[in-house]
Amino acid sequence: MNLQNTFVQPLADFVGQSLRVINVTHKPQSFEYRQIAMSTGIGILVIGIIGFVIAMTAHFLRVI
């Protein structure tokens, strides 16, 4: 097997794809940042509430 086909070519392809992704990305505007932060916060809150309800249900079922 040729060393270029097994190691160098996949590495060059990966570098090319990585550079393409970096060129497409951009720094978010303040509105985008606030929207992402709000969505993340709501998701964390919902997951926390679900976990709390499950924990309290398990606690009360053990007490009964």
What's a quick, concise take on this entry?
The protein is mainly alpha-helical. It has one domain (3-63). 88% of the residues lie in helices and 0% in strands.
User: What is the residue-averaged pLDDT?
Assistant: 90
Number of extended strands: 0
Please give the radius of gyration in angstroms: 24 Å
**Percent helix range:** over 70%
Strand content: under 5%
Whole-number count of domains: 1
Folded structure, characterized:
With 64 residues, the protein is mostly helical. The chain has one domain (3-63). It has helices spanning 3-24, 30-63. It is elongated.
Secondary structure: elements and pairs:
Layout: H1 3-24, H2 30-63
What tags apply to this protein structure?
mainly alpha, 64 residues
